[in-house]
Amino acid sequence: MKITEIAFSVYPVTDMARARKFYEGVLGLEVTMDHEMDGVHWVEYNIGAATLALGLAPGMNPSSDGCSVSLEVDDFAKAVAELNDAGLEFSFGPIETPVCHMAFVKDPDGNSVGIHKRKPGHE
To answer: What is the pTM of this model?
Structure first.
């Protein structure tokens, strides 16, 4: 087997409408696929060459201890201000490292979502 790329990352959610308000309203993502079938609701957002999905399905349970997605932003300070304006508390950061700036918030189900900005020379 040869892995060539990450196909998608998915966050389990318990309330799709509430989750979509966060991902579309607060983060400004645009839906690229919305599909319901046999008790499963799946929504996707294409971000560059990657896809972030939300899944509402039996056996998929949100966790603040699970994997986290970090979204690359064009203006880190502006993104931090927008998250603050939305009333979100940061669970980690904002911090600066030698190669980037990053911070993490929780979505409505407690999943960890990061914002990230690479410094020049670290693309």
So the answer is: 0.85
Torsion region of 43: left, alpha or beta (phi above 0 gives left; psi -120 to 50 gives alpha): beta
> pLDDT 10s per residue in the chain (123 long)?
887 778 899 999 999 999 999 999 999 999 999 999 999 999 999 999 899 999 999 999 998 888 889 999 999 999 999 999 999 999 999 999 999 999 999 999 999 999 999 999 887
> Domain of 52: which CATH number?
3.10.180.10
Q: Which of 54, 113, 65, 73 is nearest to 89 (CA)?
A: 113
Tell me the residue range of the domain where 33 lies. 9-118
Pairing mode, if any, of strands 40-47 and 100-106? unpaired
Under DSSP, is residue 61 helix (H, G, I), strand (E, B) or coil? Answer: coil
